[in-house]
Design brief:
- This protein has two domains: 9-77, no CATH class; 80-132, no CATH class.
- Helices cover 35% and strands 7% of the residues.
- It has helices spanning 29-33, 82-92, 97-100, 103-114, 116-131, and strands at residues 17-19, 24-27, 42-44.
- A three-stranded antiparallel β-sheet has the order 1-2-3, with no helix packed on it.
- The chain is elongated and about 75 Å long.
Length: 139
């Protein structure tokens, strides 16, 4: 018996699997369609503003180091790295009145620095400097 040349399915017809304590709804598209050559999955939100993709870094340990494609089928989504960029700028302003006099900004920096994605990005950036560090005595 041969399998059909194609198969169509609606995302809502795939039973969702709650992940991350129910924050995300994973729909196992790959298993449903029998795809074996590459990964393909779907995540849906219960309501507007809900998390659809968890924070992650495809270059990190255990990530598989693969590229990902995101497609918004209905509604809209916002993907940002803005908070990481903002924390980087605010770190440069430490010790100035611009950050120190506003506890909410100091707290934002602290939370941002604690994020694994920020720590990996900073480590990657600093690795370049470590690799090219001058050898011997300072001039």
């Amino acid at each position: 018996m041969t399998s059909p040349a194609f198969r169509a399915v609606q995302l809502d017809d795939i039973d969702p699997v709650p992940v991350l304590d129910g924050q995300l709804l994973w729909r196992p598209l790959r298993a449903t369609l029998g795809v074996r050559a590459f990964g393909v999955n779907a995540y849906t939100a219960r309501a507007a503003g809900d998390l659809v993709v968890e924070e992650h870094d495809e270059r990190g340990t255990g990530s598989g180091h693969h590229e990902e494609l995101y497609v918004v089928v209905a509604g809209h989504a916002r993907f940002t790295i803005g908070d990481l960029m903002l924390v980087t700028v605010l770190r440069e302003l430490r010790g100035t009145e611009g950050v120190d006099e506003f506890p909410n900004l100091s707290a934002l920096v602290k939370r941002g620095e604690a994020r694994p994605a920020f720590q990996r990005a900073l480590s990657d950036q600093l690795a370049v400097f470590r690799e090219h560090e001058p050898q011997g005595e300072a001039a």
